[in-house]
Amino acid sequence: MRLILRLLGTWLIALALVLLVIDGTKSLGANALVFSSLLDWWAQIHPQSLEAVKGFFDSRFFADLLDAALAAVLSYPAFAVVGLPGIVLALLGRKPRRERFLRHDQI
Residue 60 carries which DSSP code? Predict the structure, then answer.
């Protein structure tokens, strides 16, 4: 299970770095900070799935709350939305640390 978490976390971190490099290149070209939102990337890659997710959230009981939450997440930079779960998954998949305390005379 740890292997799967680490692999998925590593892939998400790598994707976040690619998105950050793309945004950095756009920023250099525009001579200003440019961050692409998750909505922009999702609409470019697969707009049908974006509409399907919006339709799914509209059919739920708390549709207004879900729409507000989805709009907030989609407005964040894509590298942050992808990178943060990647970091969390990578940290969850690491080996547990064993604290080993030594006495001063054992050093």
Answer: S
What is the Cα–Cα distance from 76 to 78, expressed in whole angstroms? Answer: 6
Q: What is the pLDDT of residue 85?
A: 96
Between CA 69 and CA 61 the distance in angstroms is 14
Length of the chain: 107
Give me the sign of the Cα torsion angle 89, 90, 93, 98: negative
Strand partners, 37: 77
Torsion, Cα 1 19 17 49, to 10 degrees, reads 0
Within 10 A of 32 (CB to CB), how many other CB atoms are there?
Answer: 8
C-alpha to C-alpha distance for 42 and 37, rounded to whole angstroms: 9
**Cβ–Cβ < 8 Å for 79, 23:** yes
Enter the pTM of the model.
0.80
Amino acid, single-letter form, for residue 58: D
Q: What is the mean pLDDT of each run of 10 residues along the chain (107 residues)?
A: 93 96 94 93 94 91 90 94 96 81 68
